Structure formats: C-alpha cells, structure tokens
Amino acid sequence: MENLLINGFGSSGGGTYQTVELNGKGTINGDIDCERFSCSGTGTVNGDVKADELRISGHAKLNGAIAASKVRIDGSAKVDGDVEAGKLKILGYAGISGTVKGEEAIVRGKTSIGKDCEVEHFSAEGYFTIDGLLNAEQIEIKVHGGESKVKEIGCRRIVCTAHQSKLFSFLTPLISPPRLSAELIEGDQIELANTTAKVVRGNSVIIGENCDIGLIEYKEDIRVAETAKVGEKRKI
Predict the structure, then answer these.
(1) Chunked in runs of 10, what are the mean pLDDT values of the chain (236 residues)?
(2) What integer pLDDT is reported at residue 167 of this predicted model?
(3) 89: Cβ–Cβ under 8 A, 6 or more apart, which residues?
(4) d(Cα 94, Cα 57) in Å, to the nearest integer?
(5) Distance from chain centroid for Cα 155
(6) Is 121 helix (H, G, I), strand (E, B) or coil?
(7) For the segment 189-205, what is each residue's pLDDT rounded down to a tens digit?
C-alpha cells in the first residue's frame, strides 16, 4: 500500500494509503482512507478522513468528517463535520462544527463542539463549549481559565471542581473565576463546584462552593454548601 507524503507546497487527490503525512503546506482534494494520518505543517483536506490513528501537531483544516480509533490534537484543528473516535485527546485547540461520538474524550486545551458530544467518559481540565448535549456515563471537569459552557448535561455521574493553581494566584482578583455554565445538569450522582445552572436534577446531589443554581430536584439526598446560591430545592 502506498504512502502519501507532502513536505513542501503540494496537493494530491484522495485515496487509500498506509500513511499520510502533511509536513509542509499541503492540500488533499478528496476522501482519505489510511492507517495513520499526521499533520505537522499546515494541511487542508477537502473530504472525509478515515484512519486508525490521526494526529495533528500543526494546523489542519478538515472540510469533512473524521472516523478514527485514536485522535490526538496537539496543535490546532478545525473540523467541518462530525468526529467519531474511540479516544479523542485535545491538548491544543479543536473547533468541531458537528457531533462528537466515541468512547473517551479528554480535553486539556481548548475545544468547541457545535452539536452534541456523546461518549462513555468525558474528562476536561481545559476550556470547552458544547452547543448541544453532553451525554456520558462518567464526567470529570476541572474548570479554570474563565467560563466553560454546555447547553445540557446528561450522565450517570458528574464531578465538577475548580482547578487549583498557585502559579497565578496573585492575579485572582483581576480575572474571572473559573466556572461551568449549563441550562440543565441531570444525572444519578452529581457533585458540583463553581457551577451556574438553571436546573440540576439527580438522585444524590452535592452543591459545593461558588455555585449558583436556580432549581435543584433530587430523589434521595442533598448537600448544599453555605456559600452556594440556590433558588429552590425540591424532592421528587
């Protein structure tokens, strides 16, 4: 099986390859099916990418969908389509206009998702926005660097805490506190801090410091910190 390698300025059509490497400024016109796709330069793909492993350490513009076992973004990527990946790891920046589906999504940089994100495990220590539903079995969020936003969250268990960093602690009065914002957070076990939400609904609910919740609906038990602001609590 052939490899496709673009080191300088160049372009190619789509096709089936073993390895695709974009190290310079390359453009691929058509769908790509390969075992390994990497972009360490500036790359554009006008089509869908199907790969076992996809890695972007440069700057990539993908005008199509991604289907891969592993996706890792260390640089920046804009994806004008859906992403389906067994494991998605974002250490740089990713702008995804469609949906994200897979087993695991890890956000350590910055990402925006235009539609829903449906994974088994979602972990974030960076900044993210999700315009649709975040649906996962397990959700772990450490908010920092401003406000992360998601329209709705549905899960079995969610833990949201504030990222503790002493490096810029002297700037705390000058910057906005880290925060997760959502219209609805629904799950079996919910533990929140630094969160703003219109409605929180769950079996067991713990509301920690720096929370602002409009309505809490709970089935089993609830704990609310003294510093938290809650409009109404309702047992269902």
Answers:
(1) 94 98 96 98 98 98 98 98 98 98 97 98 96 98 91 98 59 66 98 98 97 98 97 96
(2) 42
(3) 70, 71, 72, 73, 106, 108
(4) 11
(5) 15
(6) strand
(7) 999 999 999 999 999 99
Separation CA 134–CA 146 (nearest Å): 19
pTM of the predicted model as reported, rounded to 2 decimal places: 0.93
Residues in the chain: 236
> Backbone dihedral region of 174: left (phi > 0), alpha (psi from -120 to 50 degrees) or beta?
alpha
Cβ-contact 91, 107 below 8 angstroms: no
For 205, the token pair is 């609910």
* Backbone dihedral angles phi then psi of residue 173, each to the nearest 5 degrees: -65, -15
What are phi and psi for residue 172, nearest 5 degrees? -50, -45
Beta-carbon count within 10 A of 226 CB: 5
Q: How many C-alpha atoms does 119 have within 13 Å on its Cβ side?
A: 25
pLDDT value at residue 210: 95
pLDDT number for residue 165: 55
Contacts 24+ apart (CB under 8 A), 27-30: 28/4
Q: What residues contact residue 112 under an 8 Å CB cut-off, 6+ apart? A: 94, 95, 96, 128, 129, 130, 131
Structure-token pair, residue 226: 């003294």
